[in-house]
Each structure stands twice: as C-alpha cells, then as structure tokens.
Design goal:
Low-confidence stretches: 1-27, 83-94
Number of strands: 46
Distance between the termini: 95 Å
Strand order of the largest sheet: 1-9-8-4-5
Length: 544
C-alpha cells in the first residue's frame, strides 16, 4: 500500500505553521517548499527548484476558506511564460519554477483556499494543505492601450486606453468609471483619473535623455496600472518614435594611416525640422561606428570618433538612437606598420632588467621575414637614447598575430627604458613610452671566514658587512644575509644558513668546520627597491 504524505505550508509570501511529518515520508517529498498563489482566476504553483518540468501528478484542490469541501480540482498545469527560464537560463540559474493552471470556475465571489497534491519520489501521493489562497473577485482590466508617436521635434505623446471591471462569475465586463490609475516611466510615476466611461487620454512629455543616450533599439515605454478590491493590474505601452531626417557631414570619408596608429574621425550631425531648418543634434547624443570608440555630440553637433587601425575597413557612422534616421560611410585604408602595447619593464634582484610587451604588425609587404626591435636606455627619459640590446621578431607578410616580447639585459643604472622599432621606408615604425627603472645598489665590501686554517670540529666564524647606496653608501640594517659553502674539488654551492644584519650593517654566524672549502655571503632576497649583492669568496683550510 502506498503511503500518503500530508503537510500544511504557508500561503505564498506569508508565514504560518508547518505540520510535522514522519522522517521517511518527508524524505520522499520532492518539493518540501512548494507553495501556491493565484492570478486572474488561475492557480500559480511555485516549486522553488530549478526543474522546468511540471511536478508529476500535480493537482490543485480549491475549497471555500474555512470549509473542508473541495469545489474544484485543477490539473493540466503548464510552465508560466514569464518564468525564470523564459529568456536566458544560461546566464543566471533560476531560483524557482512556476506553473499555472487554466482559469477556474467557482460558484461565488470570495477568497478560497488551495491544497496542492502531487506524486512523491516513492510513488505515494503528497498533499500540502492550505498552500495558498485564490482571490475570486471582480478585477480591473486595461484594454485598447495606445500611445501616439513622438519625435525630437514633437516630444508630447498621448497615452489612451479603457479601464473596465471583469466579473469571473459570468465573464462579463463593465466600464470602470472615474478609476484612478498611474502611468510610470522610468522612476517617474504620474497619477491620473479615467472619465465616466472608464476611458482616458492623457498627454505626457518625453525627456530629452531618451534620444541622447538610448541604444539603437530603445523605445519610450509607459507602464499603466490600476487597482480594484486590492487587486492590481498593469500593462506596458510602447510609444512609437518617428525618426527625423539626419545628416552626418564627415570632415573626410576616407582615413589613411599605418597599422597600429590611432586616427580620428570628425564630423557634424544635424537634423531637419518641419520648416526645413537644419539644427544640430542635441548635445551628448551618442555617435557610433563599428570598431570605433563612441563619441558624443557637442552643442554645435560636432563629434569625434577614434580608432586604432587594425586593417582596411568600410564602416557606417550613425547616431545610437532610433530618433535620428541617417548614416554615413567611412573607408579606412591601413598602410604597413607596427605597434607595441602592454609594455612593462622592471629591475630584478640579480641586476638584470626584464622588459615585456606585445608587438602587433600588419599589412606587412611581401618578402619580410623579421623586424628588428631595440631596447633603448636614457638617463632622463628624454634625451640620449641608446640601444642596449637588439633582437629580431619573426614576421610574415600581411597581418601577424601579436608577438610576445620577453627580454633581459644587464642593469645599466637608474634611468628609463623603452622598446623601439625604427621602421623602414615601407613599414611605419613604433616606439613605446618610457618606463622608469631603478633599484638601490647594495654591496658586501667586508667579508671574512676565520680562523684560517680551522681545526676540524671547531667553529668557523663568518663575518662581514652589508651596505646600501641610499643615496650615499651607509650600513643596511635588519636584512637577511645567506651563507654558502663549496667543498674543495666541487662545483656546487650549498646554502648553509642565514642571519640578520645589525644596526651597523654587520653580520656574523658560526659553523662547525668539517672539511676544506670556500665560503661567501649573499644578500640574495632583497626587497623590491634594492639589488642583491655577493661577497668575495674566502677559502678556509680545515685540518684534522
């Protein structure tokens, strides 16, 4: 025999009492948080899971509030068209699933109780009593909702419609005289009243921001809403936009430049009024073109777009708005060239300078196999640039994928570095901005391992001093010095330990003498502002 599970859950969005059910039965309930509500005489069921399928065997039993007698049982539920997966479930997982029934017919107006029933995981019927309420009452209806066209020259629209009252008992409708309603647009809500027949025609003025900042497919929308018996209904009306004749006068319809260079497209945008007068597009109206950085009009209608050239193209220039119906065409002719981007340079602790960058090359003529790039240095970043290292970047004719540059060179001292491709008569050159490189120099001018010779098993004392140029040479306190030892006859250095420098920059550590070999100390792990340093090598003979 199948088990029957029964529970009382809260009505939708309310808090109530939940009847406890046996642990085994509750585990078999696939929708323990299910609840119900209503909308236009339909029962709405929320399962609060991500499953788009209607719960197996779903039924909604409707009974008069306070009565145990069921007056209707609804089946045939379908997923609500405005549910969480109606548009895009991939971008954000749904938080619940909603299903709706067909409209219910009941004997009288009033408030009814909804009990939900469906099949559990073990095939048993699961019942949730008092899962929600159904309001079976007269409700307001908005119909014939319209909005007259607007344009940049005519910003007033007339929103019209009819408000009526629907009676679910007999399906009849009657006018809703003098009904209060609201028209909401954006954050602004306006209250108005219908006439004695429930009809309204109200004028609203559109804001200039609609045609300055809206995307190309944007329209003006109003949400009209009204209430009756605590039941609210709303509808959205889209105001048609009538584009005006627009002219985009470009300073030049053809732009030429080397690959990687930034070019600028300038022009003036005007629109034609009904009397034939040409007026500039409103200030801050966005002008777009594929691949170009968008620009905004000035009060004169002038605009500037910019683009880094990446190849030949023919593209349209137009306002980013349905209010202005025009476009212009610009042709881009890209010549051979190269450019650097994401350039970085830093000094490493080992006294080397590491430079990195991406190197783009396009429209390269036939026969080209490589481009020579120089790492240049200048003490002040303005004058005296000299090449400190040169290397070839493999290149083929046409447009090349960006080449990742990673090069190192000896630290030349504080100053600036940059990358430069000098170019040829056929290929336009390129240069990066200058990047400051600097690390404070350090040194271990004093170092000694003693005694010499040392007796096996006795201490060897390693001492020395660490200085840094900040900016003149002075002791460098509180730094870690690492000690290394290499036995005679070996080529491998072994890290033996470390110690901190004292206030006067001195350091000291003792080791047990085991065999003859060489010692040195290293400031091996400097901070980001200092260079590393090594001492001289000192050999200690260990006697038996």
């Amino acid at each position: 025999m199948k088990k029957r599970v029964s529970a009382v859950l809260t009505a939708a969005m309310a808090v109530g009492t939940v009847w406890a059910v046996p642990t085994v039965a509750r585990a078999a309930d696939p929708y323990p948080e299910v609840h119900a509500g209503s909308w236009e005489e339909r029962v709405i069921v929320h399962t609060e899971d991500w499953d788009a399928k209607v719960p197996r065997g779903l039924k909604a039993h409707v009974r008069k509030k306070g009565s145990p007698t069921r007056l209707a049982t609804l089946t045939g539920f379908t997923r609500r068209p405005d549910g969480p997966c109606a548009w895009d479930c991939a971008s954000e997982p749904p938080q619940n699933s909603s299903f709706q029934s067909d409209p219910v017919k009941l004997p009288e107006l009033g408030t009814y109780t909804i009990d939900l029933e469906y099949t559990g995981t073990e095939g048993e019927p699961v019942v949730h009593e008092d899962s929600g309420e159904l309001s079976y009452a007269e409700r307001p209806v908005i119909s014939n909702l319209k909005s007259s066209p607007v344009s940049v020259e005519h910003l007033d629209t007339v929103v019209s419609g009819d408000l009526s009252v629907y009676n679910p008992l007999d399906g009849s409708s009657k006018p809703y005289p003098g009904a209060a309603f609201t028209a909401k647009r954006g954050a602004e809500t306006t209250s108005r009243t219908a006439d004695a027949t429930g009809h309204f025609e109200e004028k609203f003025r559109i804001d200039h921001g609609d045609f300055r900042e809206s995307p190309a497919d944007s329209q003006v929308e109003f949400e009209v809403a009204t209430e009756l018996n605590g039941r609210r209904t709303g509808k959205t009306v889209t105001t048609p936009v009538a584009p005006v004749e627009t002219d985009l006068a470009l300073d030049s319809s053809t732009l030429t430049g080397p690959f990687g260079d930034r070019v600028y497209l300038r022009g003036t945008a005007t629109w034609k009024s009904a009397d034939g007068t040409r007026k500039p597009l409103p200030a801050l109206t966005t002008i777009d073109s594929g691949g170009w950085t968008s620009g905004s009009t000035e009060f004169s209608g002038g605009f500037i777009l910019t683009q880094q050239l990446r190849g030949d193209a023919v593209t349209n220039v137009k306002p980013r708005s349905v209010w202005f119906g025009s476009k212009a065409t610009v042709t881009v002719d890209t010549t051979p060239g190269a450019f650097f981007y994401s350039f970085a340079a830093s000094v490493r602790p080992d006294r080397s300078v590491h430079v990195s960058s991406l190197f783009g090359r396009g429209e390269i003529p036939a026969g080209t196999t490589a481009l020579k790039v120089d790492i240049e240095y200048s003490a002040d970043g303005k004058t005296g640039w000299t090449s400190r290292k040169a290397f070839d970047v493999p290149t083929k004719p046409g447009t090349n994928q960006a080449f990742s540059i990673a090069q190192s060179l000896p630290y030349p001292g504080p100053g600036y570095v940059r990358l430069r491709y000098a170019g040829t008569p056929a290929i336009h050159g390129a240069v990066t901005g200058a990047v400051r490189i600097e690390r404070t120099n350090t040194a271990i001018p004093e170092f000694n391992a003693a005694p010499e010779p040392a007796a096996k098993g006795k201490p060897i004392n390693v001492t020395g001093k660490l200085n840094h140029a900040a900016p003149t040479w002075k002791p460098f306190a509180g730094q870690t010095v690492v000690y290394y030892f290499r036995p005679t006859g070996s080529t491998t250095w072994t890290e033996m330990g470390s110690s901190k420098t004292a206030a006067d920059g001195t350091f000291r550590k003792s080791f047990t003498a085991t065999r003859t070999g060489s010692w040195y100390a290293s400031y091996a792990y400097p901070d980001s502002r200092h260079l590393g340093a090594k001492s001289r090598v000192d050999e200690v003979v260990v006697t038996p």
